[in-house]
Amino acid sequence: MSVQGVRPPGRGPLDVFVFSVALILSGVAAGLPSAQQSQVESAIRATALYPFLLLHRLAAERGQVQSRVEGLLAERDSLTELLLRYRERPTPVEDASPERDLGGLPAGSVAPAVVYPGRPRVGNPDLFVLSGPDFRDREFPVGVFTGIGLVGVVRAAHGLGGRGEFWSHPDFRVSVLAEGEAVSGFVRPLRADGGQPVLLLEGAPFQADIPVGTLLVTTGIAGVYPPGVPVGRIREPGEPEAGWMKRYIVEPSVRPEEVRDVFVWNRPALPADVEADTASAPVEPGPAPADTAAARR
Q1: Do both 80 and 213 map to the same domain?
Q2: Domain total for the chain?
Q3: Which residue, 250, 174, 240, 249, is CA-closest to 206?
Q4: What is the mean predicted confidence (pLDDT) over 143-160?
Q5: What is the domain extent for residue 39?
Q6: Is there a single domain that holds both residue 55 and residue 114?
Q7: In a domain, 10, yes or no
Q8: In this structure, are residues 225 and 86 in contact, taking their beta carbons and an 8 Å threshold?
Q9: Average pLDDT for residues 203-225, to the nearest whole number?
Q10: Is the pTM of this model over 0.85?
Q11: Is residue 41 situated within a structural domain?
Q12: How far apart are CA 272 and CA 270, in angstroms?
């Protein structure tokens, strides 16, 4: 049969021979027991198909490496932006002396760490264990983030490492600021209908309208995170709170299941002229005496 007068090339004897041999071998292989079929399959994969399988594996590994490189470059760019934003923060009013410029202010530092999700309590996706920095004799909580955004918080030491919670943990809270809007509030996790967790911004003034897509960053007011760490972007308005406050659904910048290499924030040391005042520290009251018959006598 020809198409528009073009006659397709005919099948040569070699093509027919190869097809016949392949058909005969497939019939013989189909009649073998399951154990022998597995042996034949392994032999074919190790000989005739090996070059093709090797090329396929190399192509897959190259794609993974390229994807990882692109992710690292994105984290580098985001971390650079974060550091620049942190250094360009306004000088505190009480520290606006001319002899102390912004470059001399303590900015803290970061230390690399590796996250192991679902530990130490296996099966809980909101918990993690960190390895890397030595968390002994550290003051908790400690902020954890990547170049892309906020990850969670370390609550206590765990061996030489630490254990903590992702932002998806029900007890997680962080103070945020809407970039370019001068609106602040608190963010907490939200799980709607058993789906993927998102974030919920609460405490926004009722008269303020935050546009969709606005980036929320940490304020750094509690000292757990440096100011300017990306938390998420406004996705849509939520149900208003009781009173004169608004809520917003926030798409998180980082998903817990996507992180492994993170940064731990080392708080800046206090200036030398600031000393710990242990004398005026509040003293917790001791336990009340037991109301026993002996005490009443």
Answers
A1: no
A2: 2
A3: 240
A4: 93
A5: 20-85
A6: no
A7: no
A8: no
A9: 91
A10: no
A11: yes
A12: 6
Amino acid at 219: T
Distance CA 41, CA 50 (A): 12
Which of 68, 85, 102 is the C-terminal boundary of a domain? 85
- From the list 238, 226, 36, 39, the residue with the least C-alpha distance to 147 is 226
User: 216 Cβ partners below 8 Å, 6+ apart?
Assistant: 176, 177, 178, 179, 187, 201, 230, 231, 232, 233, 234, 250
Quickly count: other Cβ atoms within 10 Å of residue 114's Cβ. Answer: 14
Determine, yes or no, domain membership for 221.
yes
| Least confident segment among 53-57, 99-103, 141-145 | 99-103
User: Is there a contact between 118 and 127 (Cβ–Cβ < 8 Å)?
Assistant: yes
Give residue 200's Cα distance to chain centre. 17
Pull the structure tokens for residue 76: 């580098």
Tell me: do 77 and 170 sit in the same domain.
Answer: no
Say if CB 178 and CB 219 are below 8 A apart. Answer: no
Q: What gap in Å lies between CA 72 and CA 141, rounded to an integer?
A: 27
As a whole number of Å, the end-to-end CA separation of the chain is 117
- The token pair at 11 is 């099948």
Q: 93: Cβ–Cβ under 8 A, 6 or more apart, which residues?
A: none
